[in-house]
Amino acid sequence: MSLTRRLLTALLLGSALGAASAQSLPELVARAKPSVLLVGSYGLMDSPRFNFRGTGFVIGDGNLAVTGSHVLPPAPPPGTERRLALQILGADKQWSLRGATVLANDPAHDVALLRFDGPPAPALKLGGEQAPPEGSDIALIGFPIGGLLGFSHVTHRGILAALTAITLPTPNAQTLNPRAILQLRQGAFEVLQLDVISYPGNSGGPVLDIASGEVIGVMSLALIKGTRESALSAPTGISYAIPSRHVRALLAEAGLGSKP
Q1: Where are the domains of the chain?
Q2: pLDDT tens by residue, 73-86
Q3: Cα distance between residue 205 and residue 47, in whole Å
Q4: Nearest CA-CA partner of 217 in 247, 197, 195
Q5: What is the model's pTM?
Q6: Do domains 31-116 and 137-253 have the same CATH topology?
Q7: Which residues, at least 6 apart from 109, have a Cβ–Cβ distance to it below 8 Å?
Q8: Residue 251 contacts by C-beta under 8 Å, 6 or more apart in sequence?
Q9: Which fold would CATH assign to domain 137-253?
Q10: How far apart are CA 171 and CA 150, in angstroms?
Q11: Which DSSP string corresponds to 223-257?
Q12: Phi, psi angle pair for 257, to nearest 5°
């Protein structure tokens, strides 16, 4: 075989292997959905008993979950039975209620790390310290508008539009801790600006790099124009996510290293 033909054969094989290893969005969604969960509170005297607050996702050993700090329910009034709870979709397509505790919370960067009870669930892989290049294809999976659409996973596709600096809203008295105070003093930090429509209920969910299938960020907020209601009636398509390196920092703080 001539050198030219051997080189051509090698190139064709390389292209075939690359195509075989590439992950389509439908494949990614099917693999990721069992790892994306409901975050809320559960109270025997509440109606409904489970109060949905946002999205989360499983990482690590299968009993760790990540969500947004602002998604966590407020501390219950004294004497109430209300507690932090998650719901996870099982292999039987039924939602399973799980009790959860907060291992680490970073209100300044709007991320929280939880541990939940029961058998482990499939985990997503965290991306590295560096975000993918601007223009990369991304996907969100979550529960937009909460239970109004039923608790079904919904996927939105977009792009990583920019790496930009932002200052999150000032934490309230419940979340104002030394870390939050330090961040307020330091000012803005880098976030992922996404060209994608997101809705209330997507907060705390994973931002997935379609090419690698890794979690590159945690959904935090969307730009709205006018009133809060316009987030539903006239979404801007500009959303922001917290880079996954801040999740790795929480893992280290909880003594779990930085491995996903």
Answers
A1: 31-116, 137-253
A2: 998 878 778 999 99
A3: 25
A4: 247
A5: 0.82
A6: yes
A7: 69, 168, 183, 189, 242, 246
A8: 60, 104, 113, 257, 258, 259
A9: Thrombin, subunit H (2.40.10)
A10: 30
A11: ---SSTTHHHHS--SEEEEEETHHHHHHHHHTTS-
A12: 70, -165
Q: What kind and span of H or E run contains 56? A: strand 50-59
Q: How far apart are the first and last CA of the chain?
A: 46
Give whole-number Cα distances, 95 to 76, 81, 98, in Å. Answer: 24, 21, 10
Closest CA to 66 of 207, 168, 191: 207
| H or E segment to which residue 221 belongs | strand 215-222
Residue with structure tokens 């060209």?
195
Is the domain spanning 31-116 CATH 3.40.50.1000? The answer is no
What phi and psi, each to the nearest 5 degrees, are found at residue 175? -110, 5
The torsion angles phi and psi of 259, rounded to 5 degrees, stand at -75, 140
Could you report the per-residue pLDDT of 175-202, keeping only the tens digit for each?
445 555 455 556 678 999 999 988 889 9
